[in-house]
Structures are given as structure tokens and as C-alpha cells.
Amino acid sequence: MLPWRRALRAAGLLRSAAAADARPGTCRRTRCGPGERPVGRGVAPPAGPGLRQFLRGAAAGEPRPEPGPVPGTGKVYLETYGCQMNVNDTEIAWAILQKNGYARTKELDEADVILLVTCSVREKAEQAIWNRLQHLKALKARRQQARLPLRIGILGCMAERLKEEILHREKLVDIVAGPDAYRDLPRLLAVAESGQQAANVLLSLDETYADILPVQTSAGGTTAFVSIMRGCDNMCSYCIVPFTRGRERSRPIASILQEVRMLSDQGVKEVTLLGQNVNSFRDMSEVQFQSAAAPVLSRGFSTVYKAKPGGLRFAHLLDQVSRIDPEMRIRFTSPHPKDFPDEASVLQLIQERHNICKQLHLPAQSGSTRVLEAMRRGYTREAYLELVHHVRESIPGVRLSSDFIAGFCGETEEDHQQTLSLLREVRYNVGFLFAYSMRQKTRAYHRLQDDVPADIKKRRLEELITVFREEAARANEAMVGQSQLVLVEGPSKRSASELCGRNDGNIKVIFPDAEIEDAVGCKALVRAQPGDYVLVKVTSAGSQTLKGVPLCRTSLSRSAACH
């Protein structure tokens, strides 16, 4: 361990999972609000941020409150914003609170505690939280008049990024807890009950909540997400995630397998392995795992960090998870394109195993090599396209999805046109497209200028969306006349007489709720239920949805054998 890191840990300013009961207090945060930027043109930018900046200023934090057991009381209302990682965080936080005696309510007016699990990836996401707090301000005032105390908490990435502003703006929020501080929620709530504000936003180098089985928020659901790692080391110049969720650390494989088995026993039919960078998974929990060589990157890809030897890798995890239940679909998100080398057994596993979905998320972010370099993505347009060709050769019929950012720092019209051409060339089935939103603490914030006007960002985003939808519609139209295996999720939101589900490629499929033959059981006529696999013949296709007619109820294994 480095001397500065050892010193911080000795001082209680750097927490390990083993030291979770130390209950550290508050740590540093900037006082800059959303949109403020102290570094402008003509000012020499500071060096790019690293791990030290995650921890800088901790020594100046507030005194740590004395730890103490605090039994939970009252009802908790949880509200989730942002990505699927935040949904998983909500399940972890609720598991901790439930164990400490709290009850859950879905009615806002019944709550004694309201917790918002927040996102900081874009300014719009943070603004949604500020707007929500204004609504809760009136509710809290009414409760105070009635002498019925209401505690409000901000959890997750926004808590980590804006602790000081959240606590000081109108004194509305009682507790603030970062993504690595959920174990501390019972104590923080006890402090708030005494009338004080309480915060813990300390980042951890090893917290994965491996010993906490999340309480699924959608009881009886057919799908579930299982977090396999937290944090990210890629340090893309636009991304706030390393600064709100910390460095990469992976759960022990044993704890992941235990959770997936539990979900299988509960009847869950699809599990998505979840993390900021899932295919850099690296389980170092056992001594015997630490002798493995560092992995090879995809051809033409690089990283800002040195290769990390040792550990059980993602291919091993994917292999083990896929063996648990042959009737359970397995997905994973979000991978980084760099971690699919030519000899990758991950691609081979996807091709061979009938229950690993033939669908990959390959975030491109831009089609311009110049912009990709500014983003510090570690690859060129040419290397990315070579990977796409390799994936399609390795997994026939694979469906692809991607992320794109419109209007990144310094993006020209030529750069934008290259991104449009990449969308046309690859023809993704699913896309996630956003206008660039500069985030404090990122390398782009320190080194680059957010110089693309908002109206141009909006126009470029609209053009990206238009081209994506045109190409996705063409890709999906190729499935018309084919039979697709659909996992039924429930009734369609638009019509009670139709059912909705997703095919292997993660594309939504709508079909009539009618009696169909049961190919698995006694051949009698049945109606499909959530969790059933139904063979559907596609009759029409749009950019985001397929429609069809149901043929029969079947099983994942039976369908794979027939194909």
C-alpha cells in the first residue's frame, strides 16, 4: 500500500469494507453549484484529476459522530432516478434499512423518511432532483406544522458530488449518503432524528456490498439486475462516474452466484449482470486467484492505466452464471469495447450458450477519431469498426446497442457527420443518445472548453436520433416473417388486450393476449403469463418495437434445440 494511502486509512479517512463499522463522518465536497465553473479561458488548467483528488480535503472534514446502535423506526419512501445502477443501489439501501427495522411505504404522505437515489451523469438529471426537493419542501413544512417530523435524504451520485450545496440550500435535506455509505444509513437517520444534519460521502476502495442480498423492488418480477462490480478506472474525459462511484472493485464470484441462485429459486427468468465496466471484472478475493496474467485488450485499443494482473475474469463469471439455470436468460451491461480481444472467450461463450443473449452493448460515444481522442476513449473509429466486424463474425445474428454523445467539446460539423455515418454503417438495434453536459471534476471540465452552443447540440442530437431510428427500423424489418422467442414481462402499457416482452436481442415485442398451444406441457390451449417464453411470428417492425402473433408457449432450452 502506498504511504499516503496507508496514512489516510490509518486516520480513518479511507474506508475498507472490513472497517465499515468505523462509521466515518463527512468528507470534502466543493461548494460549486450546478453549472458553475471556476476555471475559465486564460487560466492555466490544473493537472487532470486522479484518485488523490477523490480523497483530497478529507482531513479537513467535519468531526466524525460517535458510532452507536440505532434501531430503525418509521416508514421509508424510496424514489429512484437515473440508471439501472441506481435501481440496484435502491435495493441495497432498502435491504440495509429493512434489516434495521424500517418499514417500506409506496405512499409519499405516509412516509417518515423520504430517500431520493440520485444521478449526476447530466445536469438535467440533477435539475430533476432540485425540482423534486421544492415539492418536498412544502410537504415538510406541512408536517412540521402538524408536529409530524419528516426526514429527507439524498443518496447516490448527486450526494457524492454536491454534498455541501445539498446540505446548505434552504436546510431542507437531513441526510446525505454517497454510493459507498449505505451501510451507514441507520446511524445517519438516527442523527437526523435528533435534529442534526448528517452526511457520509466517503469513497471506498473495496466496498461492493457483497454480503448484502438486495431486496428486489419489483416483487414477483420476471427480470432482475445483479451488481457484479462498482466504480470505473477508465477516466474518460467527459465522465463523472469515477468521481461519484470511485475506483473499480469487483464482488467475489461466490457471492454473485449465490444471488443468482436465489433469483432462480424465486422464478426470475432473466438476469442482467450490472456494472460500469462489467467485462473488466476481476475477482481478487482469494489468494489463488492472484497469479493470473493480465488480460489482452481488443486490437487497436488502449487504456490510461497499466494492465492489471491476477484475478478471476469476466469470462469465468459468465460461464459459471450461465450454468445455474438453463431456463434463465443472462445479459450484461455495460461493457467497454476495449475488453473484447480477438481470442476472447466471452464472445465464444455468447455464441455457444443458449441462455446467454446474443446481444451486446458497444458504447461508441462518437464516430470521429479526433473526438474519441479528446474523450480519452482509447480507440479510433477504425479500431471500433474492426471490433464490430469481429463480433458479428463471432456471433451470427448478434444485436448491437450503443451510446452516443452529441456536441462534445470541440466537436465540428465534420466530426458530427462522421458520427452519423457510423450510425448508418453499423445499424444498431438499440441506441442511447444524449447532448453533452459538462460535469465538474472531470478532465474535460479542467482541460477543455464546452464550446458547442446549446442550440447546435440540440440540432445534432435530433439528427443523430433521426438517423439511428431510420437504421434501427431497417435492422428490425429484417425480422419480419421470422419467429422470435419472447420472454413475457406483462400487459402492454397501451392495450390491456396485448402482452409485452423482449426477444433475445432486447427488443420490445408486442402481441395479442390470446389462447395459444402449450408446446411444453400437455399441448392444451393456455394464455401466456409473465415469465413464460412465447414463440412469436413477427408481422411488423418499427425502430423500437416489433409486433407479431403468438404461436405457442415453449421453453428456452426447447427453443434452442429447435434452432
Automatic annotation (TrEMBL):
- All copies of domain TRAM, residue ranges: 477-552
Organism annotation: Haliaeetus albicilla
Question: What domain of life does the UniProt record list for this protein's source?
Answer: Eukaryota
Protein name from the UniProt record: Mitochondrial tRNA methylthiotransferase CDK5RAP1
Q: Which SUPFAM superfamilies match?
A: Radical SAM enzymes
Q: Name one GO molecular function term.
A: 4 iron, 4 sulfur cluster binding
Q: Which residue numbers delimit the Radical SAM core domain?
A: 218-474
Alphabetically ordered keywords of this record: 4Fe-4S, Iron, Iron-sulfur, Metal-binding, S-adenosyl-L-methionine, Signal
Family per similarity comment: Belongs to the methylthiotransferase family. MiaB subfamily.
Q: Which PANTHER family match?
A: CDK5 REGULATORY SUBUNIT-ASSOCIATED PROTEIN 1, MITOCHONDRIAL TRNA METHYLTHIOTRANSFERASE CDK5RAP1
Alphabetical list of Pfam families matching this protein: Radical_SAM, TRAM, UPF0004
Q: Where would one find the signal peptide in this protein?
A: 1-22
